[in-house]
Amino acid sequence: LNNQSENPSSEPHKLMLKTPLKQAATSNSVLSEIQNQAGSLLTPPKLNETSPGDPWTPTANLKILISAASPEIRNREQKKRWPDGPSEVLEAKNYLHVSFYFSLTNCKSQPSRKEKSLGLLCHKFLVRYPNFPNTAENNEICLDEVSEELNVERRRIYDIVNVLESLHMVSRLAKNRYVWHGRHNLNKTLQTLKKVGEENKYKQQIQLIKRREYEQEFELEDEKTGMVTTHTSLNTDLCFVELPGMEFRAASVNSRKDKSLRVMSQKFVMLFLVSTPQIVSLEVAAKILIGEDHVEDLDKSKFKTKIRRLYDIANVLSSLELIKKVHVKEERGRKPAFKWIGPHILPYTNPVPTTTTIVPSHSVECKSAKEQCSKNLFPSRGKQSFTRHPSLMKLVKTIESDRRKIHSAPSSPTKKSTTDSDPNPSSFPSKMAQLAAICKEQLEEPSRQLKKMKMKLTQTTMQCKLASPVKSQAEPVPSSSQTPSLVEPLGVLPVIHNSMSPAMLPHAYSGVSYAVYLHPSQGQTMTTYSPTFTLQCVSCANMTGIKTSLDANSKALLNDAVTEDGNFLIAKEKEVTKNDNISEKCLKRSQALLENSPIKKYKGNEKNLEDALVTLFPSVYLIPLAHCTQLGNEAVFYSKEKAAMCSSEPGTYSSSIAGLLPVTTSEVTAVNFPAFHITPLKLMVPPSSVATVPVANGVSFNSSPDNPSQSPSSSLRNFTLQHLGLISPGMQVSANPILGPASVHPETEHVSPISENSTVPETSEMCQTTTENFFRTPGGPTKNSSLAVSSDSKGVDEISQGTKFVPQRKLEVSTEAKL
DNA sequence: ACCTCCCGCCATAGG
DNA sequence: CCTATGGCGGGAGGT
User: Fold this and answer.
1) Which end of chain A is flanked by fewer CB atoms within 10 Å, N or C?
2) CA distance between the termini of chain A
3) Closest by Cα among A621, A616, A387, A613 to A519
């Protein structure tokens, strides 16, 4: 292991030579410029500390002295290094003196751990590059230089760069060389991540996890629901999400398929973007990221490692000012968590190519699209080689063409460059959607334990209340006004997304196409795409899941896709040729599966619908093709079915909810599945389904496009809920004595409703309805701190978000500082 | 005593 | 084989 720490003598210097040299060698000058902290000072300390076991730091010294560590060794070490070191260092010929000098003189100089934190390092790194670099210039980053200048080991730089890369703030050019993009792509990236996060039902996963925890706390007894219940997680194995323009540059040298840190980073960000109170606890994040259907025995070590990584990532994200640390209080005590303080992301702005010409440069676009697709298809695992599947390409093309047609229309999205967005959050909180999702989530629960029910119901109620009719659209953002984005057209119809079965992917609204990727472990992959619908067939036994999305417009494609799928079910990857006939087979097969599948069982007992769902769709991953075809998707999207499904709001994001919402049992079993059986290829949501879930409908309606205020009042919701029998009349108000009326379950998730309000951008305030007022702090508008979280020690609260309302009751979240 | 998370060993990918 | 990357987890600083 590392003997270095304990044994300064022998090994150490070996080690020392290694790193120290690199670091020491670095030029201080640059450093000083960048960081005022202590350029020169810094260096020396480093040297000191370099000696592994025996730091020259005051404390270390003390220890050393006490322990009577051999000084000669240290000196030796220093000698070795110093020669290489900076000139100033050389000056001090007497190493011993020097060492003393530093240790004594600059107490502060000693790089306390904090000073060496990745966050700080990242900050230094960021200082070197502008947020919005002139694209004309070449903003290359040489890792060597950076590490030297920042005086850190390379390894650390990789950590930073990897995260930045995950946000597409940099992209790799070649070995040792990266290009700095700054925040030009940030919004677009975040949008994409959000979308993907939604598609992955991260929100639901989070809730699932929380619920589980909760359950565990209370009763261990309830493991009942069948084994199925618990652990299956939706978790999917995502691969690195790329942006449309970025892949090119990076592509050439794309190394490791793996990119775990990158992927983790993206997932982590997704969690924020998807969760309603944009607060994510490390614990939850780790679980989700670990993702597998681990059977509750979270590998301790694995978990710990994940946490470590998350801290690393969090530090970088913090430096980017995208998140900040907070603590969420729970029964157990506080838990470390992070809150998103970055820009709000719109659901889906049509990603118009930021590239110079708007014109559909066919060739270019297509190419990019393809590229993208293929890239996305690569599972991180790498084993399955899916690489450019012909069908995919085809699909892409088709989509493209469709899109073109559609886009040509006047309504086509204006080119709003997402790139610029960074500074101001143009986004709108799509509260409605989220609320709806939450409500639904909550609703499904009821059948379960009473306890939970209670809690949940309470929450639900609250949430419902909270749900403001706000129409996200209010947003002043020019772009929005101009271009409603794809969704808009669709948005015309009242939304029914609720009706969508869980199987359906949320993304429909987004109008994004996807490639479906099954986790290798699950079985085979398949690919399909369709903005519209996704059908998932799963054999529970195998846990094999398939998602198929159907696109009315691109049937042909679908068929092809299906064809492949047909085999995939049984089989393995293969590049099957396509037969249209196969699709049918597939269908049948899927039907058969369904019949046997647990779903049926679930019908009987309404419990755990969610679980069932989860089970059904273990780990399927959809890769959005949207980027590829920036515009295209919409076209597809517009089929009637979609329209029906999608929420109407143009700018709004409401529709996104749909996917997120867990469907109630009855709904799923009764309505959705049947539908699937019938026509996989052309699935349409039966209108009736809507009726089935009144609550959901209510929610969705709220989202109605133009009128924020229209949404049903909370009372209405409650009413509805009550009628449904999901909640008892009294439930709505505080279930939780401690928290008070609004009180929510301590867990973060519960908090969410509130925070939502807080999160709302000012612009939208007008939209905010009375419900919000409810939450408002008596004091009046103030900074918005999420309920759950208290602001940083600095007390700085979100400036960035600028929410005006403070939640009345706070969940107890304390700032880290406090704690 | 737990929370953070730095450090750097060492396996891999890439060349 | 050598270098660039980066997974990983020990264990130490912080609170």
Assistant:
1) N
2) 34
3) A621
Q: What is the mean pLDDT of chain A?
A: 45
Å from A786 (CA) to C10 (C1')?
Answer: 36
* Rounded Cα–Cα distance for residues A777 and A784 (Å): 10
Let me know how many helices (H) and strands (E) chain A has, helices first: 37, 11
Of A782, A787, A789, A818, residue with least CA distance to A803: A782
Average pLDDT over residues A706-714: 33
DSSP one-letter code for A712: P
CA-atom Rg of chain A in angstroms: 27
Q: DSSP state, A473?
A: G
Judge whether residue A15 contacts strand B, using its CB and a 7 Å cut-off. yes
Nucleotide nearest residue A113, measured CA to C1': C13
CA distance A118 to A452: 40
Cα–Cα dist A626/A700, whole Å: 24
CA A396, chain centre distance (Å): 25
**What nucleotides of chain B have any atom within 7 angstroms of a protein Cβ?**
3-9, 13-15
Residue A155 has a pLDDT of 93
User: Which long-range contacts (C-beta less than 8 Å, at least 24 apart) are formed by A563-570?
Assistant: A563/A391, A564/A389, A564/A391, A564/A526, A564/A527, A565/A526, A565/A527, A565/A528, A567/A524, A568/A518, A568/A523, A568/A524, A568/A525, A568/A526, A569/A523, A569/A524, A569/A526, A569/A537, A569/A539, A569/A544, A569/A593
Tell me the C-alpha distance between A378 and A223, whole Å.
37
Pairing of strands A177-180, A334-340: unpaired
In sequence order, what are the residues at sequence separation of 6 or more whose Cβ sits closer than 8 angstroms to the Cβ of residue A673?
A501, A503, A594, A599
A128-171 per-position pLDDT tens digit = 898 888 877 777 888 888 888 888 899 999 999 999 999 999 98
CA of A155 and C1' of C3: distance in angstroms?
Answer: 13
Q: Which nucleotide is nearest to A312 (CA to C1')?
A: B5
Q: Quick one: tokens of A711?
A: 């949404």
Residue A88 is classified by DSSP as H
The per-residue b/e assignment along A345-355, b for 16 or more CB within 10 angstroms, e otherwise, is bbbbbbbbbbb
For the entire predicted model, the pTM comes to 0.44
Strand-pair partners of A170: A180
A148 CA to centre of own chain: 32
Strand C proximal to A482 Cβ, under 7 A: no
Distance A666 CA to C9 C1' (A): 47
* C-alpha–C-alpha distance, residues A397 and A395, integer Å: 5
Å from the A201 CA to the B14 C1': 36
- A472 CB burial (10 A radius; 0-12, 13-18, 19+): buried
Q: Which residue is nearest to nucleotide B13 (CA to C1')?
A: A256
Range scoring the smallest mean pLDDT among A50-64, A169-183, A800-814: A800-814
CA-CA distance, A505 to A672, in Å (whole number)? Answer: 13
Q: Which of residues 170-189 of A touch strand C (CB under 7 A)?
A: 175-177
Strands A533-539 and A170-174: unpaired
CA A385 / C1′ C15 distance in Å: 49
Type of residue found at A747: E
Give the separation between CA A193 and CA A278, rounded to whole angstroms: 14
CA neighbor of A482 nearest in space, from A654, A651, A304 = A651
A331 touches strand C (CB under 7 A): no
Asked if A311 CB < 7 A from strand B, the reply is yes
- Half-sphere exposure for A557 (CA within 13 Å, toward CB): 31
State whether the beta carbon of A744 lies below 7 angstroms from any atom of strand B: no
Strand partners, A142: A177
Residue with tokens 């088709």: A398
CA torsion A35→A37→A42→A45, rounded to 10°? -160
Single-letter code of the amino acid located at A604: G
Contact A787, A809 (CB under 8 A): yes
